[in-house]
Amino acid sequence: MTALDLLSRLEGVRSRGTGKWWARCPAHQDNSPSLSIGEGTDRILLYCFALCEKRDIVGALGLTMADLFFDAPTPYGHRPIPRQAKLDYTALAFRYELAALDRRLRADSVLKAARNFSIEELDDLDLDRLIGAVASAYSDQDRAVFLETVADGLRVKAFQEREAHHAV
User: Which residues contact residue 87 at a Cβ distance below 8 angstroms, ignoring those fewer than 6 apart?
Assistant: First the structure.
């Protein structure tokens, strides 16, 4: 079985990087994803943060522990087509906002520290380092503005999606 085979059986699947996902755990009443799924070297890795047993998780999916290995045959001889995970635009916007805040805080601390230097007392190497740090701080401020703009666009998209859903 492949990870995509397993993901097609789960709900609320979200990617969290290459070969890693979150999903709602089928072994308990899960309102927000608490099941971590990953691809190991020879098997699918599962961990439920609500501490469900792996046997209970695979059992709720109609599988066995042996099905988690990549060389295990696919049930019923075919591979199901995985459902495309629906993007949570609000959560994604929040992540962009956090990244923007991180950039702003970093830039502010560098610029505040740079005000305390007297450039007459610095040698050329230290002055070059200071100028580079200040330039990076201004670049971080520009990136923060960009990330906030993206977050705003994602929130608009989430709002439009909710409105379209309620109109139906």
Answer: none
